[in-house]
Amino acid sequence: MSVCARPVTPSFCAPDNEDFRELSLEFIYTIIDPLIHSTFGLCAIEFHEDHNIGYDDIVERLVRSQLKFSIPEHFDLGEISLSEALGGSSRKYKSWLKGELTKIGKDDLLKL
């Protein structure tokens, strides 16, 4: 006689201790952004929720989270201070951002 085991069904419940907004940003800017930048020359920061405003808010969040992101040639900020956003960042991250801004001639945005 054979015994049939009850089939196991996967659980799709969200864990209580996860910040999905932060995980989404991490996925977009570590996986999607490098892919669309290398393939199409696009930068994910230019495709944010509200197209009536600039990408200052998303840049500030990325910098505070120390996530690397593709920076467009015409990059400019008017609402935030990168120096303030970089307050708790590592030297390595600050160095990366300064290097990226220097490449496009926008290192004046960093008043460190």
Description:
This protein has 112 residues and is mainly alpha-helical. 42% of the residues lie in helices and 0% in strands. It has helices at 20-40, 56-64, 82-85, 91-103. The mean pLDDT is 87.
Distance between the termini: 76 Å
Number of distinct helices: 4
- H and E order: HHHH
Mean pLDDT: 87
The largest sheet is: none
Number of strands: 0
User: Any idea what the radius of gyration is?
Assistant: 20 Å
Helix and strand composition category: mainly alpha
Shape summary: globular
Summarize, please:
The chain is mostly helical and 112 residues long. The protein has helices at 20-40, 56-64, 82-85, 91-103.
Structure characteristics:
0% strand; 4 helices; single chain; 112 residues; mainly alpha
Strand and helix map with partners:
Layout: H1 20-40, H2 56-64, H3 82-85, H4 91-103
